[in-house]
Hints:
Number of strands: 10
Largest sheet: 10 strands, mixed
Shape: globular
Helix content: 10-25%
Radius of gyration: 19 Å
Number of helices: 5
Number of domains: 2
Oligomer: single chain
Amino acid sequence: MRIKLTMSYNGSRFSGSQSQTETGNTVMGVLHRALTRLGITAKPIASGRTDAGVHAFRQVVHLDLPPHWSDLVKLRRALAHQLPDAITIRRLEAADGDFHARFSARRRVYRYIMSDREPNPFEAELVTFTPPLDLERLNSAMRLFEGEHDFEYFKKSGSDVKHYVRTIYKAFAYRHRGYTILYFEANGYLRSQIRMMADAVLKVNSGEMNLTQLQEQIGLTARHSTDLAPAAGLYLSKIIY
């Protein structure tokens, strides 16, 4: 039986989501070991990878269960017992045999959460603290990302993809309960693309970059910044199938 597993995690506890040979302290590595202890050897496949320090509200994973695991309610309970507090199973359900967490996804939603209030240690791993934020400036920058673009100038080196064209359906900033949030919805992203876009938006907010320079970088006529916004504020919010 193939299952679809939806999970949340605090990325500050892990060295990224993708399994690595250098460390076992990744989200998928920890999940795989927990499954193995329950007699499930199939490798879990995630909808995509997140950097070290990046969080997830609803990461989606698929895997195939051995015949002796047919009770999904019992499995969810047993798996929750095996996982650390930094990972929570939100939902565990049967899926079609051709369902693929990554390749079946149509859209991916990320949110970048910021606060321009005085920094405090209790949120340091969960939000990005910034200088004062101007919502109008942020939205002027965010709107430039919408549409289909070649995002070669908004990727970290080492991206193992054949092309850099992605479609961003929605990109905007809004305030919620004292926080300012950047919302991105796209068919996919390049390695560290969102953190690089968020950093550029914050530079427009501060005056370090202007809209013309941002448009030049999107249009591949000039590269004005390659910095990444801190990982702490970034959340994989939803996978749309």
